[in-house]
Amino acid sequence: MNASIPHLTASASADEIVAGLRAQGAVIVEGVLAPDLLARFNAELDPILESVSPKRSYLNPAIDWFYGDRVRQITGVAAHSRIFGEEILCHPFYAPICDAILGPSCARYQLNVAQVMDRGPGAEQQVLHRDEDVWVHLPRPHPEVQLASVIALVDFRAELGATVVVPESHRWERGRQPKPEELACAEMPAGSAVVYLGSTIHAGGRNSTKDRWRRGMHMSFVVGWLRTEENNYLSTPPDVARRLPRRSQELLGYAAHDALSAGGGYLGTVDLLDPVDLLAQGKL
Ligand SMILES: [Fe+2]
Predict the structure, then answer these.
(1) Cα–ligand 1 centroid distance for 202 (angstroms)
(2) What spacing in Å lies between the alpha carbon of 29 and ligand 1's midpoint?
(3) Ligand 1 midpoint to CA 57 (Å)
(4) 67-122 tens-digit pLDDT
């Protein structure tokens, strides 16, 4: 793994982060979660992860194979963690980056999935992949439809399974396979995020330690007109969502996608109204 990823701090401007993303397909940003927020979030996650078994079934055998049986997952994080729903989902760090990458292709963007992935000892490296390939029916070429990240909730080191990224692979022809020297390891301190495009090749790394867990959270956003990986309305139903900030409700997909001003139409209404307004009025 000889390649490297641009390394910035949270004080970097959104323009610098976006420029790094466009050039390399991925950037590491340190200090995305402040130490106090990180500590409170981890404390909230501790008992939840204790109750989760890494041996579980998934949607189908291919997903069983992809995740393996050494990874503890928390899905629907907004419904399980008040700190996530109130402070991380709507964290201002992501807004200008999503505006730049996804904004030109939609009327609003939304959360695709937030998923805590606690990768245990013996977890093998994932197969190298592009996250956007879940939307295999989307014709290519297409503009970027996804902005993804993995937030390090502990220090990410190579031996612990830090995310592996292939810089510049967002501009590669589809069939090109990375050589070992084209891989980069996203080593970074806790609270950092490796931010990458949906078209960038990457994988969760191998945890070669005997007894340490690599706690991280995948958090990604997509254009508002695309079906999301997690069904966020069911994972965070109205009874939970109505207690969250309006911005978080919008990002969970409760806001209508109104493209009328761009010559399009509207998506996601309830009774031809905006569900996020109905939540505010106590009608949903
Ligand atoms: Fe991925």
Answers:
(1) 6
(2) 18
(3) 19
(4) 888 999 999 999 999 999 999 999 999 999 999 999 999 999 999 999 999 999 99
Average pLDDT, the chain: 96
Neighbour count for residue 283 (Cβ, 10 Å): 11
Give the integer Cα–Cα distance in Å for 113 and 96. Answer: 19
Report how far residue 179's alpha carbon sits from residue 71's, in angstroms, rounded to the nearest whole number. 27
3-state secondary structure of 131: helix
Token pair listed for 218: 């995948």
| Dihedral angle of Cα 186, 102, 254, 72, to the nearest 10 degrees | -20
Q: How far apart are CA 264 and CA 225, in angstroms?
A: 11
The rounded Å distance from CA 33 to ligand 1 centre is 21
225-231 long-range contacts, CB within 8 A, separation 24+: 225/106, 225/107, 225/257, 225/259, 225/267, 226/135, 226/138, 226/145, 227/135, 228/110, 228/111, 228/112, 228/113, 228/253, 229/112, 229/113, 229/134, 230/75, 230/76, 230/111, 230/112, 230/113, 230/114, 230/115
Q: Which residues surround ligand 1, an ion (CB under 5 A)?
A: 131
* Three-class DSSP category at 235: helix
Copy the structure tokens of residue 12.
């970097």
Closest CA to 248 of 43, 84, 14: 84
- What is the distance in A from the centroid of ligand 1 to the CA of 283? 37
pTM of the model: 0.96
20-40 confidence digits (pLDDT tens): 999 999 999 999 999 999 999
* Centroid of ligand 1 to alpha carbon of 75 (angstroms): 15
